Amino acid sequence: MWWEGGAVGYIDQRLLPHRFESATASTVTQVAEAITGMAVRGAPTIGVMAAYGIALATTTGESLSDAYDTLLSTRPTAVNLKVGLDTVMAAGPDVGDKPDAAAILGAARMHDNSEVTAARDIGRHGAKLLAHGSRVLTHCNAGWMAAQDWGTATSPIYTGAREGMNPFVWVSETRPRLQGARITAWEMVNEGIDHRLIADSAGAQLMRQRKVDIVITGADRIAANGDTANKIGTYSHALAARANGIPFYIATPLTTFDTDTPDGESIPIEERDEDEMVFVEGLTDTGEIQRVRVAPLETKVVNPAFDVTPATLITGFITEVGVIPATPDAIADVFRHPIRW
Amino acid sequence: MWWEGGAVGYIDQRLLPHRFESATASTVTQVAEAITGMAVRGAPTIGVMAAYGIALATTTGESLSDAYDTLLSTRPTAVNLKVGLDTVMAAGPDVGDKPDAAAILGAARMHDNSEVTAARDIGRHGAKLLAHGSRVLTHCNAGWMAAQDWGTATSPIYTGAREGMNPFVWVSETRPRLQGARITAWEMVNEGIDHRLIADSAGAQLMRQRKVDIVITGADRIAANGDTANKIGTYSHALAARANGIPFYIATPLTTFDTDTPDGESIPIEERDEDEMVFVEGLTDTGEIQRVRVAPLETKVVNPAFDVTPATLITGFITEVGVIPATPDAIADVFRHPIRW
Fold first, then answer.
1. Cα–Cα distance between B58 and B54 in angstroms, integer?
2. Which residues of chain B lie closer than 8 angstroms to A181, CB-CB?
3. Which residues of A are designated catalytic?
C-alpha cells in the first residue's frame, strides 16, 4: 500500500486474480475494515497498513490511542500489526497538544521501507538454500501482496530466478480463502515462474514422491522458543516435510518474532467466519465475481485461520540478517546482537 | 444404486447436497460415464455399479469382455471395481453361445448384498473403538454414498449413534471435489449427528489441540503389506495422528484388499483433470448450481486423486471380520483363514 494525498491506497486482494483494482482508505475505520475483511492481508503488509492508519488519524483529527486500539484489534495473530503501530506511536514528541503528524508519517514510511528492505534481504539469504531447478513448495501467499516488492517466502524464489536458478514452485491452494490459488499463482504468472497449483493435502504426497526439494512459508508470529503461527495448513506441510526428510524453512522479517510470547500455546489463534468455508468466490463463465455455496445449510463450521508449527519441525528462519536456527538460544541471540548475524 | 427394469438406477452424487436426484444408466457406456464423471463414486459403490454394468451388457447384447474392459478402465486406483467385475464374470456358465443373464444379474445382486452386509459388520466392529462422545475425524465420503446403507468409515459412527454413544464428527471438506463438505456433511445432517466442517489442513491443528479422539477413513486399495491408497489428504491426516498419538483406522470391506499388489508404490494413482481444482461448483444465491473459477487462466495444476498412507501409520483395518493389524502377516492370515477373524 502507499500514502497518497492524505489517504492510504491499497490493492484489493479479494479481487485477485480476476481483477487488479486499487482502493483508498480515508479514515481509520476504512483502514481497519480493509484489514479485517482481508482486502489487505499478509503479516508484514498489515503492519505497514496499520502504521499508515495512524498517520491517517493525524490528518482526520481522530484520537491516536483510539486508532491504535481499533487497528490492533483487527487481526489477533500477526504480531507485525503491533510492531507497525508501536513504531509510529513512538514517533514525536507531540507538537503542543497535538501529535507530530509529519514525524508519524515519516515513521510509517520508514517502517514501510524497512520491511521492503528486509524482504529483499530475505531473498538474498534464502536464495543460497536453493539449487538450480529447486522445487519449492509454498503455502498461502507470502509474496508481493503480503510483503511489498519481494514478499517473504517468495523472495528467495524471485532472487533465485533473477540469478538464473530456474526455480519451480508448488503452489498450495490454501483453503479456505485460497490465497495460494488466487494470489501466489497470480504472482508466479506475473514473475514468469514455472509453477503448479495443488490441493493443500497433495503436498504430503508430493513430498513422499520426492517431488519437493524445500518448503518455504511465511509466518504471522514466532514465539521466543521458535514455535511459529502461520496460515492454517502450514503445520501439515511441516509434518510431511519432516516425515520425508525435506528441509522446512520459515521466511520472515525480524518484525514477526514476538519474544514476549514464550511458546506456540500462548499465541492467540484467530477463528474466522464460517462463510469463508461454506462459500467459495470466483469468476463465473460470464465474467462476474460470484460466490457459490458448497456445504449443506444445516452444517456448522470450525475455521481457525492459523495453526502452530512447533520449532522442532522448523529447519530455520530465513530473515534479513541471515538464516537463524529454530532454537530459543539462537532467537535470543539475534535480538541481543542483530548486527552480528 | 439399484437394478430396475433392465437398467441401473443411481443417485447423482455430483448434485449433493443441493439436489437429491436419481438417474438411470441403460448402456455400459452410460454406466462407465457415471463412474468416470463421479456421479457415482466410493470404492465399494463403484464395484457394485460395475457389476450391474455387466448385467446390463447381457440385456443390451454388448460384448461382456468389451464391457469388462470399458468398466475396468474407468478408475484405476480402487480395486473394488475389479473385484465387482470379476465376481460377475465368474457367474455362468454360458447358456448355449450366450452368457447366462440371470446368473450374472444374480451374482451382481449377491455382490451388492454382500457389500451392504460387510458395511454393517464394519460398524459392529468399529463401534467398539468408540467411547461415549468420541470425536471422530473423517476424510472424503466413506458413507452411504460410497457403500450402500451404512458406509465404511461412517458405519462405526452410525452404529455408535444407534447405541446411544453420541459421537461427534469432524468432517474434512476434501478438496478438490469437496466430498466431505458436500456428501459427508449432508449424510451427518440426515443422520442427525453433531458435526463440524473443517478445511482439510485444519485436521492437524485440531489433533495437536487434543480435539480429535480417533481418525477413521475409507480406502480405495490396500496392498499386501498394508500400505493404503485413499483420497488425497488421507496421508496428511495419518501423519498428524501419529505425531499427536491419535489412533488412525481404515474402515473397509475385504474387497478393498489387493494381495496381488505388494506395496503402496505399486498402486496406480489416478491423476484427474485440472478443472477439478480450477473450478468450484456450488449453489448460487439464486439457487442455481454453477461453477466459478478460482485460479488464474495461465496456471496449470497437478491433481492426484489419491495418496498412499504407509502401513506403519495405520493403527488397524476395521473390516467385516474384525479389526486387523496393518501388518503383512495379519493381512495374509485373514485371507488364508477369513472365518477365524
1. 7
2. 277, 294-295, 299
3. 220
pLDDT digits (tens, 9 = 90+) for A213-228: 999 999 999 999 999 9
B287 in contact with chain A, both atoms CB, cutoff 8 A: no
pLDDT of residue B96: 83
- As a whole number of angstroms, the distance between CA A256 and CA A82 comes to 10
CA-based nearest residue to A173, from B111, B277, B233, B146: B277
DSSP string, A259-328: TTS-SGGGS---B--THHHHEEEEE-TTS-EEEEE-S-TT-EE--BSEEEE-GGG--EEEETTEEE-SSH
* Number of alpha helices (DSSP H) and beta strands (DSSP E) in chain B: 12, 17
B100/chain A closest Cα distance in angstroms: 44
Rounded Cα distance between A222 and A23, Å, is 31
Task: Check CB contact under 8 Å for B282 and A293.
Answer: yes
* B239 close to A (CB below 8 A): yes
- Tell me if B198 and A301 make a contact (CB, 8 A cut-off): yes
Q: By CB neighbour count within 10 A (0-12 exposed, 13-18 middle, 19+ buried), where does A165 fall?
A: middle
Contacts of A46 (CB under 8 A, 6+ apart): A35, A40, A74, A75, A78, A80, A81, A84
User: In whole angstroms, what is the distance from residue B269 CA to residue B78 CA?
Assistant: 9
Chain B interface, mutation test: which of A77, A201, A242, most B Cβ atoms within 10 Å? A201
Cell numbers 504468472 correspond to A189
Return the residue in A212, A265, A294, A297 with the most chain B beta carbons within 10 A, the one to mutate for interface testing. Answer: A294
A121 near A154, Cβ under 8 Å?
Answer: no
Q: What does DSSP say about strands B316-319 and B322-324: parallel, antiparallel, or unpaired?
A: antiparallel
CB-CB: which of A235, A294, A299 is closest to B280? A294
Report yes or no: A175 at the B interface, CB cutoff 8 Å: yes
Distances (CA, A) of B299 to A92, A167, B296: 48, 16, 5
User: Band of the pLDDT at A147, cuts 50, 70, 90?
Assistant: confident
pTM of the complete model beyond 0.90: yes
| Contact list, B298 vs chain A (CB under 8 Å) | 189
Count of CB atoms situated within 10 Å of the CB of A45: 27
Q: What is the ipTM of this complex?
A: 0.96
List, in order of start, the domains of chain B with CATH numbers. Answer: 2-119 (1.20.120.420), 128-336 (3.40.50.10470)
Nearest to A49 by CA among A17, A9, A89, A86: A9
Tell me if chain B has a CB within 8 Å of the CB of A195. yes
State the nearest Cα–Cα gap between B306 and chain A, in angstroms.
Answer: 9
Which three three-digit cell numbers place residue B317? 483395518
Whose cell is 498402486? That residue is: B267
| Contact between residue A99 and residue A64 where contact means Cβ atoms under 8 Å apart | yes
- Catalytic residue, chosen from B220, B227, B258, B307, is B220
Q: Which residues of A touch B301 (CB under 8 A)?
A: 196-198
Mean pLDDT of A273-293: 97
Residue linked to cell 495405520: B314
Grid cell listed for B165: 454413544
Is B307 within 8 Å of A201 when comparing Cβ atoms?
yes
Cell of A164: 538464473
